[in-house]
Design brief:
With 236 residues, the protein is mainly alpha-helical. The protein has one domain (2-235): Cytochrome c oxidase, subunit III, four-helix bundle (Four Helix Bundle (Hemerythrin (Met), subunit A), Up-down Bundle), CATH 1.20.120. It is built from eight helices and no strands. The protein has helices spanning 2-21, 35-40, 48-74, 88-112, 115-145, 154-183, 193-221, 225-235. The termini are close together.
Length: 236
């Protein structure tokens, strides 16, 4: 329950910050100036796709928060034996961070209308994402080879379930990212509003999945235990 409350508070803070940046919480009747000034400062409507992505990410975040809460609750069981974390997961984390950085660079280049920069950023994001997924599979194989099977104990089951679910979300995003890369082939398309929107949505999705992965990684390594204990003390 503590993890869920912390997550919901974080989501609420992000939504309030985002709405303030989009001027959705502004009071137009309180604006000072002429009608021409107000109309000139008006921003284009927010694409529906951004709202849809926000709702989807909220649902995904709630799902992972519930699973993380179950993970923490199950840790206290007598049949729980912690699973060793392969060192490869550290390299996989670096790959996912690199993918997010490449997509953010592609967003900047798309706003500038730099076609080559957009394509290079998307290519790097695709390559690092594939390396991340391949690394996750190799880490699974290493654990299986070491005898840590899915049904041996709850720790193994949670590890495979959480990393597998996160990987499935990355695979889904990878398909959309590949489609966005195909759209960027045409001459001059890097400056199109549709392509820029697609790149921005991909970047937002990747940043969110990176945050989810970092939280999961903190749970697996035990780094987040102190933070969870602090949250429990604050709530209680």
């Amino acid at each position: 329950m503590t993890v869920i409350l912390v997550f919901l508070a974080g989501v609420a803070a992000i939504i309030i910050w985002w709405l303030s940046g989009q001027r959705l919480m502004s009071r137009p009747w309180a604006e000072i100036g002429t009608l021409d000034d107000i109309q000139g400062a008006a921003r284009p409507p927010i694409p529906v796709a951004k709202f849809g992505l926000g709702i989807f990410l909220a649902v995904v975040g709630a799902l992972f928060s519930l699973l993380a809460s179950a993970y923490l609750s199950r840790m206290s069981g007598s049949d729980w034996w912690a699973i060793p974390i392969p060192r490869l997961l550290w390299a996989n984390t670096v790959m996912l961070i690199g993918s997010c950085a490449a997509l953010q660079w592609a967003v900047v280049e798309a706003r500038r209308g730099a076609e080559e920069g957009v394509r290079l950023g998307l290519d790097v994001a695709l390559a690092t994402t594939v390396l991340f997924l391949a690394g996750q599979i190799v880490a699974w194989l290493q654990l299986v080879a070491a005898g840590y099977l899915l049904i041996d104990n709850p720790a193994n089951s949670f590890f495979y379930m959480l990393t597998g679910l996160h990987g499935l979300h990355i695979v889904g995003g990878l398909a959309v990212l590949a489609r966005t890369r195909v759209r960027s082939r045409g001459a001059g398309t890097a400056a199109s509003a549709r392509l820029r929107l697609g790149i921005e949505l991909c970047a937002t999705y990747w940043h969110f999945m990176l945050v989810v992965w970092l939280l999961l990684f903190a749970l697996f390594t035990g780094v987040g235990n102190d933070f969870v204990d602090l949250c429990r003390q604050l709530v209680s």
